Amino acid sequence: MATILFHDIVYGPIRSRRLGISLGVNISPSDGKRCTFNCIYCECGLNEERPATVRAPRRDEVRDALKAKLLQMKATHLTPDVVTFSGNGEPTLHPAFAGIVDDTLALRDSLCPQARVAVLSNSTMIWKDSVFEALCRVDENIMKLDSAIDARMRQIDQPAPADFTCGRVIDRLARFEGKVIIQTIFLRGERDGAVVDNTGEAEVGAWLDALKKITPRKVMIYTVDRETPVKTLCKVSGEELETIAARVRAAGFEVSVSA
């Protein structure tokens, strides 16, 4: 399967390994990526390979598309478990992100009150008060932390902000005071002759120390599932993920594993 882009504002529903029946919301441009990370495992491809050329959808366009889809699903007695902001990049980059979240919560309350609203984010924009406060309003703010070691984070996630460091983002994630879910991908392989592996003892130990500072209400760990733009990456076995998960549980945190 090739890497993919999402060309609609609302897509799915799809069955997510981590979230259940998920109705996706893409508030990034429809023809390419717009992201502050350039993750070597991203299912949408690398930023330089798929640059966006059109604008992101307006707030009213997102509201209308989501309302139409939820009404359609309601008419067929199909209900999503979760409405998930994801898509072709980092959703919190949208200038109207906070308003879009409020519209989504209102539509959820009126049309599918049992569904959760989730945001998958790379954590780069949580320094912005409006973004942080909007993330505090959703049911599941799922923030990426793929490594607690700067060199590895830069190798795997390739962040655009020059001042983005693990220590800084860990401090900002701790501001949620536990109302946050941490998601981490574990993988290995190589790129340009350099080893890629965030499963070693130093890596996992530093990451566990970060979790203790953040105190998330849940941790999600997973591995490569779809085709990656860097072809030399490999899955980590379910057994290895379970070993890491056991250490997370021993530290007092709930954890889910998607192998």
Structure description:
By secondary structure, the protein is of the alpha/beta class. The protein has helices at residues 59-75, 97-111, 129-137, 150-157, 166-174, 201-214, 238-250, and strands at residues 10-16, 20-26, 82-86, 116-121, 140-144, 181-185, 188-191, 194-197, 218-222, 233-234, 255-258. It has an 8-stranded mixed beta sheet. The chain has a 3-stranded antiparallel beta sheet with strand order 8-7-10, covered by helices on one side. The model has no long low-confidence stretch (mean pLDDT 94).
Produce the secondary structure layout:
Elements: E1 10-16, E2 20-26, H1 59-75, E3 82-86, H2 97-111, E4 116-121, H3 129-137, E5 140-144, H4 150-157, H5 166-174, E6 181-185, E7 188-191, E8 194-197, H6 201-214, E9 218-222, E10 233-234, H7 238-250, E11 255-258
Parallel strand pairs: 2-3, 3-4, 4-5, 5-6, 6-9, 9-11
Antiparallel strand pairs: 1-2, 7-8, 7-10
Helix pairs in contact: 1-2, 2-3, 5-6
- Can you list the strand order of the major beta sheet? 1-2-3-4-5-6-9-11
Q: How does the overall form come out from the CA principal axes?
A: globular
Mean pLDDT: 94
Structural class: alpha/beta
Mind telling me the C-alpha Rg?
Answer: 18 Å
